[in-house]
Amino acid sequence: MPEQDIQDSAELITAYFPDLTPAQKAQFAALAELYHFWNQRINVISRKDIHALYERHVLHSLSIGLCYRFQPGQQVVDIGTGGGFPGIPLAILFPETQFILIDSVGKKIRVVQDIIYQLKLVHVEAWQQRAEKLPAACCDYAVSRAVAPLPVLWQWARHILKAGKENGLICLKGGDLSAEIRDCGCQPVIHALYPLLQRDYFQEKYLLFVPV
Ligand SMILES: C[S@@+](CC[C@H](N)C(=O)[O-])C[C@H]1O[C@@H](n2cnc3c(N)ncnc32)[C@H](O)[C@@H]1O
């Protein structure tokens, strides 16, 4: 989609997820003001992208929810959440799932904590924490976008994932996938985002699921 055609708004999300409740719609709509406020103070989203918050960040994160449905009571850890992606949009979409969003940088986590507080996302926590230091077997799913090469991500995720036939790492990836998969020695399921979203501007053009 050419840059000039981007009509960024929370309505975009409703087109992909028609069953959102009024509360979820209000939470998605509130993200615009919250991210514009915080991005003027701390660079949590690339400044050249903030005008396309829903297109490039919220919808991109929610592609995970188009492919995988988290269940009530399951635990999801977002590794390297930065300003809250993909964790915050997924937490709005799945209000009965428990989310822990981690990042090694404290000032990003403080922004995420404020957004969680403003949106009253009582099922979400944000911790300043390095992925390597997370406790073993603490979640059903790990999610991640644009954080580390797959072999590194998988090493972190394998340690924190509980055993379970549907459990695994779900990550949004770009780059040389075949080299990363070879070096990782894992067998991911690969979804291409273009057929799913009809948008081709993402750097991370693939969604990978690596079963535990
Ligand atoms: C390029 S940003 C991506 C942020 C977010 N996932 C997104 O897509 O907008 C990478 C993030 O990973 C975090 N990070 C890198 N290594 C990490 C580690 N070992 N543990 C926790 N966070 C890490 C960085 O602090 C940074 O915020």
Automatic annotation (TrEMBL):
UniProt superkingdom: Bacteria
Pfam families the UniProt entry points to: GidB
Record carries keyword Lyase: no
SUPFAM superfamilies membership: S-adenosyl-L-methionine-dependent methyltransferases
Enzyme class: transferase
Keyword vocabulary terms for this entry: Cytoplasm, Methyltransferase, rRNA processing, S-adenosyl-L-methionine, Transferase
EC numbers, comma separated: 2.1.1.-
Protein family: Belongs to the methyltransferase superfamily. RNA methyltransferase RsmG family.
NCBIfam families in the cross-refs: rsmG_gidB (TIGR00138)
PANTHER family to which the protein is assigned, alphabetical: S-ADENOSYL-L-METHIONINE-DEPENDENT METHYLTRANSFERASES SUPERFAMILY PROTEIN (PTHR31760:SF0)
Protein name, per record: Ribosomal RNA small subunit methyltransferase G
